[in-house]
Design a protein that fits this description.
- The chain is α+β, with helices and mostly antiparallel strands.
- It contains 17 helices and 23 strands.
- The strands form 6 sheets. It has a 7-stranded antiparallel sheet with strand order 3-2-4-1-10-9-11. A 6-stranded antiparallel sheet has the order 5-6-7-8-12-13. Strands 17-20-21-22 form a 4-stranded parallel sheet, with helices on both faces.
- Strand 5 and strand 6 form a beta hairpin.
- The two termini are 31 Å apart.
- The structure holds iron/sulfur cluster.
- The site of iron/sulfur cluster has 11 residues, from helix 8 and helix 15.
């Protein structure tokens, strides 16, 4: 995940608009936030750990003046949560200075890092974003050509916003794994991970960038180049449809809330349950639960109340509190007592949260707990920027549905079929990455990366 944003608007307060853009994209990453502005070509960046509202104050925003800006909100694994990895990053190279914000994950970082280090380039962090920035900063060709040449070299998932020489550039990998959209605010141009950022700013969503496309926005307007040949129909991450993107965003012209309701409707048809009420694991399971209730005729009811203020920065509770575990996040309503309930969630990764929710509902007096999941079982890890655990941590990777049900302690368990999911998106199968559900990856995965994440497979072989 990660949210990226860019704006070229010489007559506006670009830092403030970036702040609001990032605020709309906060769900894509809560660990750090940053904004870089260019004022007559001079770059200033402010980035720090925390939420957008924690990093920026009125005073700090006032200090960020310029005509062009990019912003980033970051999500990362715990191990790499530190300031040096916060974005946008600024890289000084032999050809230029660039600021870059990246969403995705490169699969050939190791090889490119070695190449850069061998050439005497100094790298400060372990992030793949720095590698992209370093390649562009040292390339002596004109900026657009340098960016296009870098797109040819890097592999994996990348949607990026780049600021250099007073220009805003956006580009997307040839599979288009992570989203990136172009927007317009009167005569000014914007880029954002999701269209919900344009809505907040009163801007119009013009279109999504095509896989392999690069756009250049400067005082002459917006130009587009097909920098890299797109791969087949593209491979947008299907989890953007299931869970990652905000329900009020549109991807491929489809509003995601509607797609998620259809997933729930289809799930009810594929895996009905005899129950008194349907509830969601809030908030991400809510649209599918609404769809399930609608299609099954079983009333939708709130059963789990979520504390929306539990973030990654949550102070670790002491031992006694920790034993309540999941209660810091969810608490059941007394209303579930004596009822047979259907609980709808969008996905199950490790299974520990679902197991605790099931136990909590039984403790609250539920008679039966039927778990319904609006995606197929996750059986393989993601190499494209989602911290989904190694294969041996994925509860469904080596277990049958019945074995998972037993582990969760649920009365029944059913997942949405792959066909059902696909139909709910109303877009063709060929245009999606579904690798964590099918084990079929849209790009090559180097052996060292595979070995690190596919320990389960390695142990079985
Ligand atoms: S492997 Fe799964 S989570 Fe990763 S990009 Fe593909 S569909 Fe998305």
């Amino acid at each position: 995940m990660c949210g990226i944003f860019g704006i070229h608007a010489p007559e506006r307060d670009v830092a403030r608009l970036s702040y609001f853009g990032l605020f709309a994209l906060q769900h894509r990453g809560q660990e750090s936030a940053g904004i870089a502005v260019a004022d007559s070509g001079r770059l200033t960046v402010l980035r720090d750990m925390g939420l957008v509202t924690q990093v920026f104050s009125e005073q700090k925003l006032r200090g960020l003046r310029g005509q062009v800006a990019i912003g980033h909100s970051r999500y990362s694994t715990t191990g790499s949560t530190h300031w040096a990895n916060a974005q946008p990053i600024v890289q000084h190279g032999s050809a230029r200075t660039v600021a870059l914000g990246h969403n995705g994950n490169l699969t050939n970082t190791g090889e490119l890092r070695e190449e850069l280090l061998d050439d005497g380039v100094r790298l400060r962090s372990t992030s793949d974003t720095e590698v992209i920035a370093a390649l562009i900063a040292r390339d002596g060709r004109p900026l657009e050509e340098a960016a296009a040449a870098t797109m040819e070299k890097i592999e994996g998932a990348f949607s990026a916003v780049l600021l250099s020489e007073g220009k805003l550039i956006g580009f997307r990998d040839p599979n288009g794994i992570r989203p990136l959209a172009l927007g317009r605010l009167d005569d000014d141009w914007l880029l954002a991970s999701e269209t919900c950022a344009f809505d907040l700013l009163g801007a119009e969503a013009v279109r999504e960038l095509q896989p392999g496309e690069l756009v250049i926005i400067d005082d002459d307007g917006c130009r587009s180049v097909q920098a890299v040949e797109p791969a087949n129909g593209g491979a947008l991450c299907i989890f953007e449809f299931i869970y990652f993107a905000r329900p009020d965003s549109k991807l491929r012209g489809v509003e995601l809330h509607g797609a998620r309701v259809r997933m729930g409707e289809r799930l009810a048809a594929e895996a009905p349950a005899e129950a008194d009420s349907v509830m969601a694991v809030p908030d991400s399971g809510t649209p599918a639960a609404i769809g399930f209730a609608r299609a099954s005729g079983i009333p939708f009811a709130e059963g789990l109340i979520k504390n929306r203020y539990v973030g990654r920065t949550f102070i670790q509770p002491d031992q006694a509190l920790r034993e309540h575990g999941i209660k810091s996040k969810f608490n059941p309503l007394a209303d579930v007592a004596g009822k047979r309930v259907v609980v709808v969630d969008d996905s199950i990764v490790r299974g520990s949260t679902t197991r605790q929710i099931v136990a909590m509902l039984f403790e609250a007096g539920a008679l039966e707990v039927h778990v319904r999941v609006s995606s197929p079982p996750i059986v393989s890890p993601c190499f494209y920027g989602i911290d989904m655990a190694d294969e041996d941590d994925l509860v469904a990777a080596s277990r049958s549905v019945e074995e998972v049900r037993e582990l969760l302690g649920a009365t029944s368990l059913a997942y949405l079929s792959l066909e059902g999911l696909q139909e709910a998106t109303e877009r063709p199968e060929s245009s999606f990455c579904r690798a964590c559900l099918t084990r079929s990856y849209p790009t090559g995965i180097p052996d060292d990366l595979k070995l690190a994440k596919l320990r389960f497979e390695a142990a079985r072989a």
